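name: query_chain
kind: protein
chains: 1
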Amino acid sequence: MLDTISTRSKVALVSGLMLVPITIGVSGYMLIEQASFLDALFMTITTVATVGYGEVFPLSSAGRIFTIFLIIGNLGIFAYSLSLITRFLVEGNFFEQIRRRRMKDKIKNLKQHVIVCGFGRNGQAACDMLQKHQIPFVILESKKELLELYLGREYVFYLNEDATKDESLLNAGIEHARGLITTLPNDADNVFVALTARGLNTKLTIISRASNGSSFTKLKRAGADNVIMPDTIGGAHMASLIVRPDVNEFVDILSGQAGADVQLEEFSYARLKKNLVGVNIVDLNIRKLSGANVIGLKKGDGSYIVNPNINMELEPDMKLIILGNSSQMETLKSLID
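structure:
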């Protein structure tokens, strides 16, 4: 039964148990011995604590009988309270509460981070990719054993909480987040998370996992911007490795999955500095300045242009898809930022 009591309730229970004999003792000594409040309190504390300081004032026979019952009654209460306190400390609840509070304080300072709901295989893969690109993220996972991989890492933020609860998403800083990835094993839970997250932050980019094809439409209606079906993608990828093995291996290299020093990044055209702004791709001079290449464009209406003509006119609402190695990307970022 004790395991079902919350930490706050345990603290209240211990405090109440300790207060009961003190209240009875002070009241008894004041009524029986006509003692002052301070003398009665001091006598009660020395009695229930069994420190043996002696009588603060002479006790009558009634006072001594009262003291005997106060000591006997307090022994059980004191022993039970001590066991609760010891269990609270030994099980790590006290230190866990301190760690959780510190973690929440750190998360409050995050801006433009990503919330990852669920830390199974898909969640771990998403976190590894985010960490590789140095994008801050917060993990929400209700099963503590799944978080053991990241426990103790100061640069990773995590909460051992249920992602389907509004309070958990708020604790993870959803109001200031840039995106949310929900990889919970149950599609219904992912739908609920997407729906709740969209209500808490209308500008949030939401990516959801789906196990069944029937959940795709539900997740989109709930507010998910993209829905990923890992099993379907995995099967299609395995088949494509038979049909077009070299092409797919090359795509894996471009996506960074093969471990090569290759990065694909997107840059807003409006983000470029004045010395980079031009009327077309060739005028940007990105290849000469950084060594990276523009391999695609995303237009304002959401459509894409693959391998755009270098003389194509650019628009302020366009995004540039750029390919290069880590050194080239750092050079480009330094020119932009």
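note: The CA atoms of residues 107 and 172 lie 6 Å apart.
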